[in-house]
Amino acid sequence: MIVPFVDLHAQYESIKEEISVAMAEVLGKSSFIGGPQVKQFETAFADFCGTKFCVGVGNGTDALFIALKALGVGQGDEVIIPANTFIATAEAVTMVGARVVFADIEPMTYNIDAQGIEARITDRTKVIIPVHLYGQPADMTSIATIARKHGLKVIEDAAQAHGATYHGRKVGSISDMACFSFYPGKNLGAYGDAGAIVTDNEDLAVKAKMFANHGRIDKYNHQMEGVNSRLDALQAAILNVKLKHLPDWNGRRRNNALQYNEYLKDLNIITPYQMKDVESVYHLYVVRVPYGVRDLLQQQLNSDGIATGIHYPTALPNLLAYRYLNHKEADFPRATKASEEILSLPMFPELSTEAIMYVADKIRKMGYPLRSS
Ligand SMILES: *Cc1c(COP(=O)(O)O)cnc(C)c1O
């Protein structure tokens, strides 16, 4: 049996007709930038997140960059982000000229540790960017408390968590601004690059929209210099179709995760921790295995036809890209340890029960000892 890590083609096959109609409409009108599809998507996605405003942009990295710009973050400022995330979270901070400050993670959820944040706050700190990693919301209550106490803004990096809920609220609606990526492999993915910012703050939404479109309010009325980072009409038309299916797809991911949990429960392997009153959308299904055997397990699964991933193999502070910060691995012990033990198993809405059982069976055959308790 071959089990791919994700299967974008299976999903395309299931919505092919709707996609063709939506794309033909854009092509027929030759209105490729802006237009009704973009507006329609922005309205629908704000509604989905439970926010007042949505600004479509070119990709998720730009969404973070533009959100930081709208908040006025720049040279001399510091922004706190988790040590375990995709590099884009950190790149956006550097792009506005601010300094990246890493905080270690919680060992159970792999999300940013609130206590670690507080220890890193200085009088230059302006923003905290929690990442809802793997689809599971970060500890937003503690983060909001810290932010309020120190007068900081919070930007959610929700690139992996479209539709996840925290204490009954959708991610994206629990902070000053939230950023989404619609990279094809995300829970809501375009057929190319795309991203969005959502917020309840009209002033921030207007600033973000202006900055993303050359700093203009009319064709040649530029209030400032900005960038060109727009959601294009073809991607918006595709996202309009796919957004309607997202709740169903997220439900299937959740169901797949429950099945994995069940089939792996008696093995010496740590399955994803489920926080109370939080609903993950399982962008990834990440397990953790005892130190020293992860790579062996990955190779074995690979030879059994099962594709896996590691998210991420090196904690950001340990990358060459951040050597200038002079960190040691011991500065982020939890993120460093996790990076050596985590393994992402195949996860996508169309993943079959047979495939999940096959994966679990192959892991069992590796000879993981049964849990003693
Ligand atoms: C994918 C991702 C991004 C970047 O999004 P792009 O659309 O690829 O630029 C940012 N943060 C996280 C956590 C991501 O997973």
Reconstruct the topology from this structure.
Blueprint: H1 8-29, H2 36-49, E1 53-57, H3 60-70, E2 78-82, H4 88-95, E3 99-103, H5 114-120, E4 125-128, H6 140-150, E5 153-157, E6 165-166, E7 169-170, E8 177-181, E9 195-199, H7 202-212, E10 216-218, E11 221-222, H8 233-264, E12 278-279, E13 285-288, H9 294-303, H10 333-341, E14 342-345, H11 353-365
Helix pairs in contact: 1-8, 2-8, 3-4, 3-7, 8-11
Bound molecules: pyridoxal-5'-phosphate.
User: Which strand order do you get reading across the main beta sheet?
Assistant: 1-9-8-5-4-2-3
Separation of the first and last Cα atoms: 32 Å
Number of helices: 11
Q: Count every beta strand, where a strand is a DSSP E run of 2 or more residues.
A: 14
Report strand %: 5-15%
Q: What kind of sheet is the major sheet?
A: 7 strands, mixed
Mean pLDDT: 96
Shape verdict:
globular
Task: Please tell me how large the radius of gyration is.
Answer: 21 Å
Secondary-structure element pattern, one letter each: HHEHEHEHEHEEEEEHEEHEEHHEH
Helix content: 25-40%
Low-confidence stretches: none
Q: Which cofactors or ions or other ligands sit in this model?
A: pyridoxal-5'-phosphate
Helix/strand-derived category reads alpha/beta
Description:
- The structure is a single chain.
- This protein has 373 residues and is α/β, with parallel strands linked by helices.
- It is built from 11 helices and 14 strands.
- The protein has helices at 8-29, 36-49, 60-70, 88-95, 114-120, 140-150, 202-212, 233-264, 294-303, 333-341, 353-365; strands spanning 53-57, 78-82, 99-103, 125-128, 153-157, 165-166, 169-170, 177-181, 195-199, 216-218, 221-222, 278-279, 285-288, 342-345.
- The strands form 4 sheets. It has a 7-stranded mixed β-sheet with strand order 1-9-8-5-4-2-3, with helices on both faces.
- Strand 4, helix 6 (140-150) and strand 5 (153-157) form a beta-alpha-beta unit.
- Helix 3 (60-70) packs across helix 7 (202-212).
- The longest helix has 32 residues, at 233-264.
- The protein is globular, with a radius of gyration of 21 Å.
- It starts with 7 loop residues before the first helix and ends in an 8-residue tail after the last helix.
- The model has no long low-confidence stretch (mean pLDDT 96).
- Bound molecules: pyridoxal-5'-phosphate.
- Residues 59-61, 85-86, 88-89, 131, 157, 159-160, 181, 183, 193, 195 line the site of pyridoxal-5'-phosphate.
- Pyridoxal-5'-phosphate is lined by residues 59-61, 85-86, 88-89, 131, 157, 159-160, 181, 183, 193, 195.
